[in-house]
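Exercise 3.2. Students should predict the tertiary structure of the chain below and write it as structure tokens, then compare their answer with the key that follows.

Predict this chain's 3D structure.
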Amino acid sequence: MRNWKFAMASAILGSALILGACGGEEGSADSSSDVEETTSDTAGEESAEVEGAVSGDGSSTVAPIMEGIVEEYAGDQPKVQVTVGVSGTGGGFEKFIQGETDFSNASRPIKEEEAASLEEAGIEYTEFLLAYDGLSVVVSQDNDWVEDLTVEDLKKLWVEDGSTKKWSDINPEWPDEEVVFYAPGTDSGTFDYFNEVILEDEDIVSSATLSEDDNVLVQGIQADPNAIGFFGFAYYVANKDTLKVVNIGGVEPTHETIESGEYEPLSRPLFTYAANKAISEDPAVYDFMEYALENAGDMAEAVGYVSLPEEEYEKGLADLEALK
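Answer key:
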């Protein structure tokens, strides 16, 4: 299997990922063993060849999973071009509502207003679970004072209150240095989730650097011992040699604590939403979505997330089959 944990961080977050026919013959030959390792047992039979184009957009948190699936799929179905943008959960839903995409990746459930807009646009959709994530709070490895923060500490740090935030505000034994903040952009589902469970809809600290590109956040935190930020667990796993994860309420985000829910309130599911009409009318869309659901668990584990129980993937495949 390709070492996705370390390869994905530098590769996934361009303005779009276009992987398909350009995967070509060389990619098919080179990745034949990779496909065997990353595909689930349910995908044992060789797929019939299909042609076409499939488009998606959405969450940068979901991107490591979907990018890996798209690249492997290119070896399986070289005549299908799959294009996946990473404009954030909110940005992805905007394109989905406009009918520009066949599926939309999300690191939070769809909002009521987004669902209403899709209904108004006449777009019926189905929600598919892909994996579990533990939103990870990280600092530079040069930070030798922060090991654990409570939810209350996080709120005190991250909520805008007109003050200059210093580490000593949390613990007087910590440096009297200004905290430097990095966070996902406001179109990100990760921002929405943090806003809901930590900020509780209060304004985020005004000095924070916001970016839809999680690699920008990673690089900023790596370079500054006074920096703190948050993003999906896979980005921590891919950069754990240069970042330090912070325990929340005494619990470290790990595969075990994320799957069990012990790492709360920052454990969450990851989704993709697909247009029913595209699934039922376009064989390429159906084939890609089937491949994605058959392989999401293995790819989630490969890139650093946590796979769902097998029955969840079976339910997703049954829901997909019902739309065919």
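Discussion points: The longest strand covers residues 125-134. The radius of gyration is 20 Å.
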